[in-house]
Amino acid sequence: MGRGGSLLHVVAECGDSHKFRDCTRLIYYREKHLLDAPNGNGDTPLHCAAAAGNAEMISFLIHLAAAGDDGNTEAEKAEKEVAYLRMHNNRGETALHHAVRAAAAAADNEDDKQLALDCIDQLMAADPQLAAIQHPNEKAASPLYLAISLGEIGIAKHLFDKTEGELSYSGPDGRNVWHAAVSFPQGKYRLCFKLSVVLLLS
Asked: pTM of whole model > 0.90?
């Protein structure tokens, strides 16, 4: 969860069953500011839900962010939703980065990996441009770069397919996905490099 998290961070990370969503609703309506409050790492509860692979919690948190105050227009709700999804932590990462890491960590468990991919899908459905947004500093990397740097070809292709190629290829310090691909041993390098070429030339 990270340092200095609120109760909402804890609940968002611990589960996404009906019980956890009810608890989230109760906390939110008592302390609405906790929805986008960062912990010591700059993570919001949405980051924590994505890191834990809690797709239903992600959907619920996005719903709360969009609902906001009574009387908001549909345009205002959509604007608040996108702003929430695009919040960066101290490393310049959105919840989508956490979902990519969760999918990579679950590579050997198909059920857990599918849950993490569901998180990616929930985030991308709410904001189709989430993988293409400008990063806040030169040390930050795009979700695609992160997937390639982790050697996760399937996740990278999943991102590419979901966005129809409309995503950022950038990495930290001016690097791009090609730089990430060449860092692997020969066998995996060939796969990463081949995918990187396909992505960049699409």
From this structure: no
